[in-house]
Amino acid sequence: MMLATLGLLAACDAHNRTSPDAGHIDCMARAMYFESNWSSRDGMIAVGSVVMNRVESSEFPGSVCGVVEQKGQFAPGVMSRKLQGPAVPLVKEAAASVLRGERHPLVGDAQFFHSAGYSAPYNNMHYVLATGGNAFYEKRRPEEVTQSAPPAPLEGLTGTSS
């Protein structure tokens, strides 16, 4: 009986890793949709990678919804505005893919991004990627910054699903 229970729990855990919770998919999709303006799959996957980097950090809430719901961190109305239009299925697919483990290969440890056209006056921003209309960066000590401006935009690095 105990072995059967352990087997069932392992199957549930495997299912949870491959079939992300609908609530987390919704929160992730909202961040991707409103932050990348569904401009490209790479942009959405990069936003999702930042969300997951924050989830894994002790400096931010430990859940996708907790990170996305954080006041002042994402687009106004991210949790209340309606997801609509032909991009919604692509956004939901990308959200589920990130929750299953897909990451943008160039985001690395970045936990921050801003609109690609924005020029910030700070000297601690180490840029790693520009894609989907956003520039992604890590906060570093100023002497450790080697890329102080966003690189040229890059698209086409993520697949259609993982």
Automatic annotation (TrEMBL):
Domain Cell wall hydrolase SleB per the UniProt entry, residue ranges: 40-137
GO molecular function terms noted in the UniProt entry: hydrolase activity
Signal sequence annotation: none
InterPro entries xref list: Cell_wall_hydrolase_SleB, SleB_dom1
Gene3D superfamilies, per database record: Cell wall hydrolase SleB, domain 1
Pfam families: Hydrolase_2
Span list, region Disordered: 141-162
Keywords: Hydrolase
Cell division listed as a keyword: no
Keyword Hydrolase: yes
Listed name of the protein: Cell wall hydrolase
Source organism per UniProt: Thalassococcus profundi
Lineage of origin: Bacteria, Pseudomonadati, Pseudomonadota, Alphaproteobacteria, Rhodobacterales
